[in-house]
Specification:
alpha/beta, single chain, about 160 residues, Nucleotidyltransferase, domain 5, globular
Length: about 160
């Protein structure tokens, strides 16, 4: 279990579970993102795509879009099959911020625009990131993957 450090929220705040995934045909190429949001007994599927992008950008976009849907601060558990998202949000981002959004080698952070948006969303919520192995039979991860592929297909059609 990986935590993003933010202020603690009261216990009576809503608990939301989110499964996210990204997909890309070529890297770069047409890409899609997908997420499944679960609150109490309600589930919501969301997806979208971009005509020319990378897989990492789509993984990040899925997290951003899902968190942005939450109207109030929540306790959120995000399941991702992306070590890039997991490590970036729970380890690297704090160090990047301390260095003015530079890596340990003083290079600009790749996908800084999306990391800044994730940082904004993480300030609103108490978020725990969990890693799930992709394509291993986890029902909700597979569902998020299908949504991401659907988003990629729409982006690919828009490109033509």
């Amino acid at each position: 279990m990986k935590h993003h450090k933010v202020k603690e929220l009261p216990d009576n705040i809503s608990k939301v579970t989110i499964y996210t995934d990204g997909a890309c045909s070529g890297n770069p190429g047409p890409g899609g993102w997908g997420a499944v949001l679960i609150w109490n007994d309600l589930e919501k599927d969301i997806f979208g795509g971009v005509a020319d992008t990378t897989n990492n950008r789509m993984e990040l976009q899925a997290v951003i879009e899902a968190l942005a849907l939450l109207k109030k601060p929540c306790h959120v558990t995000i399941y991702t099959d992306s070590k890039y998202v997991l490590n970036g949000a729970t380890q690297w981002m704090a160090e990047w911020k301390e260095r003015g959004w530079k890596t340990a080698t003083r290079k600009p952070v790749v996908n800084k625009d999306l990391w800044l948006r994730i940082d904004e969303e993480l300030e609103r919520h108490h978020v725990i990131f969990e890693w799930v192995k992709g394509h291993s039979g986890d029902e909700m991860n597979e569902r998020a993957d299908k949504l991401a592929v659907r988003g990629r297909r729409h982006a690919n059609r828009d490109k033509e």
